[in-house]
Amino acid sequence: MTENVVSQERTHVDALIVGAGTAGLLAAHELLRRRPHTSLLLVEAGPSLAARLEQPPGGMSGLGGAGLYLGGRLYLGPATLPVLPPVSAPSTLRPILAGDAYQDRARAVDAHFIRLGARSAVRHAPDPRLAEAAARAAALGIEYILSYPTRPLTPEERRSVLARLHAELEQQGAHFAFGWRVVSAARGAAGFTVNLAAEDASGDARRIRTRALVLAPGRYGAEWLVRMAEALGAEVAQLPATFGVRLELPAAAYAPLTDLNPDPRLQMPLTDDAVIKTYATCPGGYVLPITRAGALVASGMPVTLEARRPSTTVAILAQPGVRGAEARWRGGEDLARRLNERVPGRLVVQRREDLRAGQATTAEALAAHSVRPTCAEAVPGALHDIYPAPYWAAFEALLTRIERLAPGVATGDALLYGPAEERFWHFPTSDQLETRIAGLFVAGDAAGQSQGTIQAGVAGTLAGEGVARHLG
Question: What is the model's pTM?
């Protein structure tokens, strides 16, 4: 059901924010704090908090986005805005906020969440078992990415924060439109014209005019953000593709890591301006084909503890820098397309023992395999001849080291799905996250500015400050 604020044909607002995740919500809060009585509309394709609570867990969109609604882990340590990659980056990718200035903003965001009900104690360091695992990884040349100090929120605290923040914004005059998506936008002399379409089957459409526009769709809206920003004339720089395969292996083999941390982030630096890393671990989860940047890729779907299956899935991705992508890692951005052309509309799955032997996996071999594929539509075949030799060398080096932490991980029983890929973009902005198009702001994960709730909140406050200044 779509929110009635749009169906009432509201046609003009001072500011329109796309996305009601942490960045969008904090942008709205900061804007109304600095400029009360601003007419403000937040457009969210997903459901309201009440509707989310009636649905099974796992949805990425809706009030609170993915971070605060699903995870609620508030990292309070040092960071930069935007996020800087662990490899070489374009010269335009510069920190606009770092050091003490960032920490001051982060503390303010945390204090705001505390006021709204985030009362769990801060954990200043990992527990001894996790700290020991990180030390063992370091001895093997692997960086175990730990984010401390952190404030882990219970589901009740997350719901309290979101419910109270939503209520406060409405009391201050903000309007929400849930179940609507932005299909297009255009610049005009007085700002922007934004065209909306209802996500339900009603076919409803509306046009809203706004003086300022904030695009904060969240990580899974990155491609939409690129299209929208480019259509409006903003500068967008694509970073080198992060590519690889998604591994599926017995959950018991990976348990020494996932029992301590359900998504252990491990990365190993390479000598040619790249890192090889684990990404998006799903204990007991399954492999799901999704479309990203025009390519079908293997993603991981997490499940609740009660619904876990016998296998765990984790991506093993190579992330080259801009220099590495111009030399030894050239061509990584084409791998997904090439594999999609080989097997249109389906993922490819290969047994690890066949990978080692340099032979394609057959349907008969897959049917007899000890690890059952969770993506039944994947086609047995070959991955070893698509990916470049540097990738497989790095893959084996990382897996061999992880084997020391979790014996059995390097088993030949594992399955590999391809392609796996993540795309990232950089949006050059002012220090208040305004693009070169006056009145157009970008904020949050999709814009590459954040990788967590606190960072997204900091980005939102910067954007809200910028909008208030733009509106005068």
Answer: 0.92
